[in-house]
Amino acid sequence: MEAVRRFAAEGRYVIGVCNGFQILTEAGILPGALLANLNLHFTCKEVGVRVERNDLPFTRRYAQGQVLRLPIAHAEGRYYADPETLRRLEDEGRVVFRYAPLAGERDYNPNGSLNDIAGIVNERGNVLGMMPHPERAVDPMLGGEDGLPLFLGLLAV
């Protein structure tokens, strides 16, 4: 983790997906924690994820407010932070992705994440942690391409 910490401190881009997000929080690189899903079950399905910011290299190829279809596969994906940390993340615009309903959905938060948080960035904006799997949505053969713009945005850096 020292190498990852150094890499991020140099301003380079780091993405932690699913357990990678969990590791970034456990290492203190990102705030908060990932707890067991409220239903206490492993959940594997496609979910709606709304883009909250499109001014980062990770999100520059999305429209703000765009709802993506991305797969999830986790048992410990519920984002949690204390009220002060949540307020700071919201005030600083560090929530990058939120769970959002797909057509006709009512229960769209698959794990009980606070504030429907699906992904956040560090203060500098170069470290992204997210539970959904954009790498599993980069080709029509995988069921969709909604994750591809995230990686294409980084290539343009």
TrEMBL record:
Pfam families: GATase_5. SUPFAM superfamilies: Class I glutamine amidotransferase-like. InterPro entries: Class_I_gatase-like, PRibForGlyAmidine_synth_PurQ. The keyword ATP-binding applies. Keywords: ATP-binding, Cytoplasm, Glutamine amidotransferase, Hydrolase, Ligase, Nucleotide-binding, Purine biosynthesis. The keyword NADP does not apply. This is Phosphoribosylformylglycinamidine synthase I. It comes from Thermus brockianus.
